[in-house]
Amino acid sequence: MKKFNLSATIDAPKKNVWMALWEDASYRQWTSPFMEGSYAVTENWKEGTKVLFLAPGGSGMVSMVAANKPEQFMSFKHLGEVTDGVEDTSSDKVKQWAGATENYTLTEKDGKTELNIEMDISEEWEHLEKTWPAALGKLKELAEAGNQSPITVIAEIESPVEKVWEYWTAPEHIVQWCYASDDWHAPLAENDVRNGGKFKTVMAAKDGSYSFDFGGEYTEVAKHKVISYILGDGRKVDVHFEKNGDKTRVIETFDPEQTNSRELQRGGWQAILNNFKKYSEKNS
Known about the structure:
CATH class of the largest domain: Alpha Beta
Number of strands: 15
Helix content: 25-40%
């Protein structure tokens, strides 16, 4: 195994670079030069947790988040392989490179970020060295786009995809979960779930002080797989439903608006998704 190093100066603050690196939507984009459709299954990149780096067919690498210092340092320890969904951390083949590390260090100066990447590479993976410049170029582009890049929220739901789809799309269920906190509710939901169909959910404070309509038009509907739509203000939203046995992973990616901070928007959408998770699991 040998050490591989590369670096880039990115015209964006550390915060933007960190989000581009690890938010689901942008992660899928900058890793696409390695394998189109690449993705990661994580527990929000929490230190000490397992992470799967996978290709579309479900094969790839099983690793651990060895360190996570937000906007400063991320380190992975690679443990083994995943083949057709089966993890291998003990075969002789895996033992030859298990324990390899991959580190990302961010340093900011005058509004720009120096990103340094260091990793152990076995002979089997040396071909990826030629692909890294393209991936790094995509990452730089995403980070420098800054606040225009999409935001992603995720929930792992202990319920089969058929039930999750029903609870997500049926108006009688939408009104039970489509709000961020207990002092709000959704008194009305209308939903025509088809390409070109429209939807509207009324979200209102329970004390009657404020309400608004959340609505748009569907651009893609693939049952039990994906829902895409455009909001009234032109922003795009994609919702993916990934089946995992009797569990379902819901990945919601949306264009941010420019009035509220990204953190506030992410928090609000995540709160609603968490409410959906709670309702789905309670009624499954």
